[in-house]
Amino acid sequence: MSTAPPTRSSASRSSASRSATTTNTSTPSGVKGTRTTGPAGTPLPTVQLDSAEFATGHYVDRLFPDDASLEGVDVAAENLRRRLQVVTQDIRQLLRAQSNDNNKQQAQSLEATKAAIGELYTRISEMKAKARTSERMVLDITQDIKSLDSAKRNLTHTTTTMKRLQMLIGAVGQLRHLKEQSKYYEASQLLLAIGGLREGFAGFGRVRQIAALHESADGLQRGLASQAFQEVERGFDSQGMLVGDARVMRDACLCAQASLGDEQRDKFVAFYCDLQLRAYSAIFQINDDVSQLENISRRYAWLRRILRNYSDDHAAVFPEQWRVGEALSRRFSEATRDQLGEIMATREDISVEHLMSALADTLAFEAQCNKKFAIVAKSPAGDQSSSEPHVYEDNGEPAVTFTGAISCAFEPYMSIFIRGERVKFDEMIRKFQREPVSIDNDPSLSVLASSTDLLYQFRESLRQCASLSTGQPMVDLSQVFSQCLCNYARDVLVHKLPRITSSSTTALDDLKNICLIVNTADYCASVVGQLEQKVVEKVGSEFKDKVSFTACRDALLTSINT
Fold first, then answer.
1. pTM as predicted
2. What is the DSSP string of 238-283?
3. Which residue intervals of 22-72 are DSSP H helices?
């Protein structure tokens, strides 16, 4: 079967297909763009594929301007794939070349850094070596200077020590000379200087010559103290009168204190106090009438005379800071306290009047001593007077004042005062019981006058007891108050309650009396609370819980309901 010749239309399509073949313009690597031929074989302009203004749609439209040009799609796509491969290969080559360049640069930088560090280390080592060399040179230069400084220091210390030793030897010799001449004032000044010089030789005890010098100085100090004490002893006669030179005796006291310190001062003060109190022991014997409680004021008058004599004649003998007058008063207080305690322990007929009078005089004497010697008693809050009086301190604690120095001897015998107050209150209640209510018929009175009299005596008794003691005696007194108020409610108020009668006139009077008694009971019950508070304020802190007026308050309220 023979093949028919191709028709015209087939030949036309084949020709169009050939004419639409895209020719890749051979350009060197790096020329950006392609040249294509359309169906008519007309070349298209080069297109920059890497341009920032590249538009895909515009590029395709120009590549295939009509339907006939679509027959070259496969050829165009193949050209683009080859172009993509070329561009990809170029990119890889560029990246590989750049990576190689970076590695070379990093290696070169690392080598340069190592070289710089090595050079820096070399320079630092050279500087250290030069520094050590310089230090050795400085040490060599200053070695002689240090040796000379040490020699100068040692020489200066040795020279100073030798001068002090020379001064100490001279001072000890001069002290021996002053001792022989009994020049106590100069010796006291020299003793202070010797004490300061001896402190510099505290570490030279093993040196035989210096140890011997210390022993010689100690012996002279003891001898001077003994000689000064004998000087003061000779200055007073057996009656305690001054017969020596007060100025010389005062210098002797200063010399003795400079020799052996406060121990020697206490010895002098004890001697003077014993000498002055020798007459006190002879005058006030325990069994003599002058020593009894009723004559206690004579004791205090005797001490005032002794203190006046000390101020006028003997104060010039002792240094003021020794406070000999105060020490004498304390020794007197101790002796008086012991003797009064013994006297009251042996007597059985002590009257309340004599006891209270003696105690009042004693409290006044203690207050005078505190004022005379500027002694301030420490308050419970720790505050002292706003002025600046002398205040003793022993190991940081305030010393005991004269308060209670003698009056403490009366504490065990305050029961006599309590019994006396109890007797006085009982007599008042018996008197009130005998008095008729009619004597209180005063329109201006709303309570019985006997109640105000009794409560007034309570307040006076409490005030007197607070000035004598704030301990157990005040608690005992509060119990007496409570018992007496109970007796008053029972024996006076309830006892005086009238019985209502049929007479209208008598019934009216009885009603007035009942109202008066009820008002009295209510008044007493209200005042009892104030009295209890006052006692609690005055009594010592350890006795506050023992104060109670509940019983008498209940008794008064019961009398109202009777």
1. 0.61
2. TTS-B-S-HHHHHHHHHHHHHHHTHHHHHHHHHHHHHHHHHHHHHH
3. 56-63
